Amino acid sequence: MSDAARHTNAPFGAAKAITTQRNINRLLLTMSSVAMTTAMLASGCSQHALETGWSDPSKVQVQFYAPPGATVAVQKTFGTPRHQVAAYGSDHRLEHSPEEFAVFNLKSGRTFNFKYTTAEGFPGVSIYGELETHKPRSEEACKFVRQTFVPIVLPSRYYQNDPEHYFPVRGPSGAGLDEIEIEHLKQGDLITKVFFVADLQHAWEAVREIDFHIDKLRSSETVLNTQLELVDSRFESYRREALYADPTIDPYAAHQDKTGQSSRFIKIESKRQSLENQRYLIRQQIEDLQNEKRIRTRLLDSMKIVNRRGSMVLATPETQWEYHDTRDQVGRDRIYPGQETGPYGVYRTGDIELPALGEVVVVMRVGGRHMHWDDPRREMVSFSEEAEEAK
């Protein structure tokens, strides 16, 4: 007789006992599975059975390739897989079978907490951070997300000696910056890394457009300087006439004072100051555009393959403005307003719109906050309980 038949024909008390035993068996099986998973996570080894979405083009794949030997754990919705950063004996980052490298497939448009340990220079230390993944929208960014991964070096005392950085491309300041950032991280400071897919065609076109617009701005400044010469001459003429006239003995001077004509030079001074301010804005815009050109020129100069439109880039000082949010600066279009000079604004430069350097794919932030992920599940349960109590 089947279990269902026995359950149907059994008395009420017996049926209840059968149901209870079945629930106990299910609970024991679940606890066994959780225990096995926890043991796998605690081992620190690469357990890629926990990874999914290998062929899902909507997921952003990240690969931690340095420092070798470090163990990385990323919190996901249904688990916290841990992988160990492999030592690349074969000098590549490509797929092995079975998989050996610290690769994670992450859903785009979300933020994932992660932890890494046993990093070179940080013995016995746990360092925490977050990965902010962005959904690709441009054609070039979609290509890179579909066909490649985002290569990440975790902050540590491990420095790469290879001066060439093909993937991701980064400027020469990156190596020196690593050492400075490590000292900041040791004190608990926040370190941010921005990975983006650069649009090289837009960068190349923007450089040419910037050169043309700077020439127009300089012509506009020439027109403005000529206008200032006329205003200066009028200012001096009216100023001398007003200051050296004596209204007590000169009826014309008295009439000028009475009608307010003697103060014409003050109005002209106001006009002159307005023109001086406009000249300052023109010069400032030229300086800003030269900086925009410098950023794009250095980005293009760092490319070794020129028959391509996109490239994965790690933002460094060469490709960003000082003291600006890197994510915003890299991924936002910029519009510089046009200038109008000469009588009645007869000379106009027109606006210039510069496309973004590219599209941000991943932002990594690492800091010194203590989080104690001794047991990832217990940590998340504790966090949930604290959130409920706070409510």
Explain this structure to me?
The chain is an alpha+beta fold and 391 residues long. It has three domains: 37 residues; 166 residues, no CATH class; 162 residues. The chain is 45% helix and 19% strand. It contains nine helices and 14 strands. The chain has a seven-stranded antiparallel β-sheet. A hairpin with a 5-residue loop joins strand 11 and strand 12. Helix 1 packs antiparallel against helix 2 and helix 5 packs antiparallel against helix 7. 26% of the residues are buried. About 6% of the residues have low confidence.
End-to-end Cα distance, whole Å, is: 53 Å
Task: Tell how many strands the DSSP assignment holds.
Answer: 14
**Strand pairing plus helix content: what structural class?**
alpha+beta
Unreliable sequence segments: 4-8, 32-49
Trace the largest sheet across and list its strands: 3-2-5-6-14-8-9
**Shape descriptor:** elongated
The fraction of residues assigned to DSSP E strands is: 15-25%
What is the count of helical runs? 9
- How many structural domains does the protein architecture include? 3
- Give helix % range: 40-55%
Mean pLDDT: 81
- Assembly annotation: single chain
Largest sheet: 7 strands, antiparallel
Q: What is the CA-atom radius of gyration, in angstroms?
A: 33 Å
**What pattern of helices and strands is seen along the backbone?**
HHEEEEEEHEHEHHHEHEEEEEH
Strand and helix map with partners:
Blueprint: H1 3-9, H2 12-42, E1 59-66, E2 71-74, E3 82-84, E4 102-107, E5 111-117, E6 126-133, H3 139-147, E7 150-153, H4 173-186, E8 191-199, H5 200-244, H6 251-259, H7 264-301, E9 310-314, H8 326-331, E10 334-336, E11 340-341, E12 347-348, E13 352-354, E14 358-367, H9 376-390
Parallel strand pairs: 1-7
Antiparallel strand pairs: 1-4, 2-3, 2-5, 5-6, 6-14, 8-9, 8-14, 10-13, 11-12
Helix pairs in contact: 1-2, 5-7
